[in-house]
Design a protein that fits this description.
Helix content: over 70%
CATH superfamily: MFS general substrate transporter like domains
Structural class: mainly alpha
Number of strands: 0
CATH topology: Growth Hormone, Chain: A
Strand content: under 5%
Distance between the termini: 38 Å
Shape: globular
CATH class: Mainly Alpha
Oligomer: single chain
Order of helices and strands: HHHHHHHHHHHHHHHHHH
Number of helices: 18
Largest sheet: none
Length: 402
């Protein structure tokens, strides 16, 4: 019986989903290394937190360039290069003996690796491969694959740390990251670069979005998303241990975030196909503030931590397909990876602030209370910023067609 080959679009979805699963899944467990590495190497929490903050900043700063190169020359090249950088960064992180080398490995190299193997590059390919009627749903499926990696790889990372130690665990993760290089062969567009042969140049596209109020509102709203998720991802396990809970509670909490994130991201993609995406973004940010407030007011226990993680998981990466889908609706898909990368830069500036301020304020005050309060205030800000955004074709890029 003859079997048909999968279409290029479906192959890109499958391989891109696995790349997101590895890329985001490995990164999701970085908070598990904070305590063992800091204790063994004699560092304060601020040192590790700064390295992760630097990772997010490098990721964000390089993402618009990586997205532009993927739009022009093909996403598979960026995915392959990103996988190599990711694997090398984990090797350097494993051999770190100083804050400088930790920053180079976990910060610079892993950050560059993430810029080639995460949402902006993969979503750019998928946004062009599928029609507008299916785009939001497909982006939700890809995001759910990344969320599945967060759920599956987190217990694996904890098991490696517990049984072998943090250094062998990082070596094993480096091997896993290298698997993204051959997967890049599937993230190929049949007419890669053809969409760049006509229409607005990169300079003209940048000039157009710079004049768009809605684009800047998306950017500033995404800053809030980055602040909240990376602060929780990096510091929640330590926060729970400080509160007298077992380290396994923190592992379970991060795993639950990944598990419920699958449903949240996929569901957001489905809802985004039927309802106004900016309105859904406002609802998500508002709910985040409510969930954080309830968690802080309730007595701390394993069950309260797990319920908080489940609720936050539903809201975790659900912002990503909605944000990228809004960009595609407004400006088309020709420069989608680059424009998504610019918005994502603001997300990563927020991530830098969330990771670093969490460590700085803890070392200064002995508590995470101030950072939790900032996270709640930012939820209210993002709710207000996203509500007035229009979801309709804007400017010459959209008029040229998707």
């Amino acid at each position: 019986m003859k079997h048909e080959r999968p279409s290029p679009a479906m192959l890109a979805l499958a391989c891109g989903g696995v790349v997101l699963m590895l890329s985001l899944g490995i990164r999701h467990g970085f908070g598990l290394f904070l305590k063992p590495m800091s204790m063994d190497l004699g560092w304060g929490r601020e040192t590790f937190a700064f390295a992760v903050a630097l990772q997010n900043l490098v990721w964000g700063l390089s993402q618009p360039v990586t997205g532009m190169l993927a739009d022009r020359y093909g996403a598979w090249k960026m995915v392959a290069a990103g996988g190599l950088c990711y694997a090398l960064g984990l090797l350097v992180m494993a051999s770190a003996t100083s804050p400088w080398s930790l920053g180079m490995g976990a910060g610079v190299l892993v950050g560059l690796g993430l810029s080639g193997t995460s949402f902006s590059v993969i979503y750019g390919v998928l946004g062009r491969a599928f029609p507008a009627s299916k785009r939001s749903q497909v982006l939700g499926i890809a995001g759910a694959a990344g969320s599945f990696g967060q759920f599956v790889l987190l217990p694996a990372e904890q098991g490696l740390i517990s049984s072998l130690g943090w250094l062998p665990a990082l070596l094993a993760l480096s091997f896993a990251a290298a698997l993204m290089v051959p997967l890049a062969a599937g993230v190929v567009e049949r007419d890669a670069g053809a969409h760049q042969a006509r229409g607005l140049t990169v300079r003209e596209a940048l000039a157009e979005v710079a004049r768009s109020r809605d684009f800047w509102l998306l950017c500033f709203g995404f800053f809030v998303c980055g602040f909240q998720v990376v602060f929780i991802q990096v510091h929640l396990p330590a926060y729970l241990v400080d509160g007298g809970l077992s380290g396994n509670v923190g592992v379970g909490a991060l795993a639950l975030i990944g598990l419920f994130n699958i449903a949240g991201t996929y569901g957001a993609g489905r809802l985004g196909a039927r309802h106004r995406k900016p309105m859904l973004l406002s609802v998500i940010y508002a709910l985040r503030g409510v969930v954080i407030g309830i968690f802080l007011l309730a007595p701390l226990s394993a069950w309260s931590a797990w319920l908080f993680a489940a609720a936050m998981g539903l809201l975790w990466l659900s912002t990503v397909p909605l944000t990228n889908g809004t960009i595609a609706s407004q400006f088309g898909v020709r420069h989608l990876s680059m424009l998504s990368g610019i918005v994502f830069l603001f997300h990563q500036i927020g991530s830098f602030a969330g990771a670093w301020f969490g460590g700085v304020l803890y070392d200064r005050t002995g508590s995470y209370g101030a950072v939790w309060a900032i996270a709640i205030g930012l939820s209210a800000t993002a709710t207000a910023l996203n509500w007035p955004i229009r979801e309709r074709a804007l400017g010459a890029m959209a008029r040229e067609g998707a």
